Amino acid sequence: MTKPLKQIHLAAHFPGVNNTTVWSDPEAGSHIEFSSFAHFARTAERAKFDFLFLAEGLRLREQGGKIYDLDVVGRPDTFTILSALAAVTEHLGLTGTINSTFNEPYEVARQFASLDHLSGGRSAWNVVTSWDAFTGENFRRGGFLPQDERYSRAKEFLTTATELFDSWQGDEILADQETGVFLRDAKAGAFVHTGQHFDIHGQFNVPRSPQGRPVIFQAGDSEEGREFAASSADAIFSRYAALKEGQAFYTDVKNRLAKYGRGHRDLLILPAATFTLGDTDAEAEELAREVRRQQVSGATALKHLEFVWNRDLSSYDPEGPLPDIDPDISENHISKGRAQVRMYRDPLAIAREWRELAAANNWSIRDLVINTGNRQTFVGSPETVARTINDYVQADASDGFILVPHITPSGLDTFADKVVPLLQEQGVFRTEYEGTTLRDHLGLAHPDDVRGERAAS
């Protein structure tokens, strides 16, 4: 019996604090003006994407005690942008990253429930933790939480927020159709939560939203992150966009679901993916090389090397050889607020590996960073890219992809116009939205339906 084709999920990530955007391109636009966000969102909706995703940085990053100004350094508040986008879109899901370390459940639940009402049930929350004391300096809580406590707080944060979302339900909730005023007894909106991190009680003041509660996303590759996603999330962002690595991650996370009484369809695996399109594969390959050199200037290459060396390397020539001195492995790191600092846990080993690669390939510092950094995930003609994306999804390397273009805000346009129609022709991507909420787009059950099924069983 032939296995039915999986439907592909596609989303669009408006690049945030990043080094992927090519600022020198004439088409590059603002990351602050609302017109950029509106253009990007309308393109994603025109292409029938599931949702738009916004990441968020809570502090301007620094290097050597100065603001790191070689890529995007900030933008307006996430809730403000998503609320505004709800007014200029009708179907597109609206996903925002909101930190669980430096916020409170009542406030975040109220904001997401409000967004869900404003958008007609299209909101989603990417639940994240903050890992560094540097970011925490902007908040009264500081950086006091070690990793195990961060995830403990995040789990209880989400549990508490869910209790708030679910506090408005039942037969006691009625609405006057003329005034829109909700009539309820004392039970509707009432909540009491006592735990390790939160001890709160009262009345939640936002009624049940169209999709019950926002869709929950999680991003994290650690053991704690995978378990958190398997137990509580509706979708997980993955960094494993390559086939074999993606299949291993997909299998691992999906196999964790059963212990929580969940099935494989209850959690979507959605890696971030970049792309470069050309009329032919050869043209796309050439363009991809050009884009990478635009993304990694000489100054960017030196700053990237400083993440590992933990030294000021401004005196080195980015077109010259790697430093012959070893990295400084002290705890006082030159780079503040960047995830790359955590990625390179053994700087001495990384330095040896990079020196060997540079020597074997005759690479300069800039060449090394270009070739060892993030490369475009999908490169080729529209036909090649459409076929590759479908092959990955059908091979269970993912359930779809969150696309990150290198041009903002128009970088998604060509994909929408040339790749999406090919996926639609293959019967693996929608031609029209079939529902009104983000849960509909993602094929996720309404929370009330899930609760009813579990109660019946």
UniProtKB/TrEMBL annotation:
Q: Locate the Luciferase-like domain: which residues?
A: 24-395
What species was this sequence derived from?
Streptomyces justiciae
Recall the taxonomic lineage recorded for the source organism: Bacteria, Bacillati, Actinomycetota, Actinomycetes, Kitasatosporales
- Please give the CDD domains that the UniProt record associates with this protein: Nitrilotriacetate_monoxgenase
For this protein, the record's PANTHER family field holds: ALKANESULFONATE MONOOXYGENASE-RELATED, C2H2 FINGER DOMAIN TRANSCRIPTION FACTOR (EUROFUNG)-RELATED
E.C. numbers: 1.14.-.-
Task: Provide this UniProt record's keywords sorted from A to Z.
Answer: Flavoprotein, FMN, Monooxygenase, Oxidoreductase
What family classification does the UniProt entry report for this protein? Belongs to the NtaA/SnaA/DszA monooxygenase family.
| Protein's name according to its UniProt entry | NtaA/DmoA family FMN-dependent monooxygenase
SUPFAM superfamilies per the UniProt record, alphabetical: Bacterial luciferase-like
Query: Does Thylakoid appear among the keywords?
Result: no
Q: Which InterPro entries match?
A: Diverse_substr_monoxygenases (IPR051260), Luciferase-like_dom (IPR011251), Luciferase-like_sf (IPR036661), NTA_MOA (IPR016215)
Q: What class of enzyme is it?
A: oxidoreductase
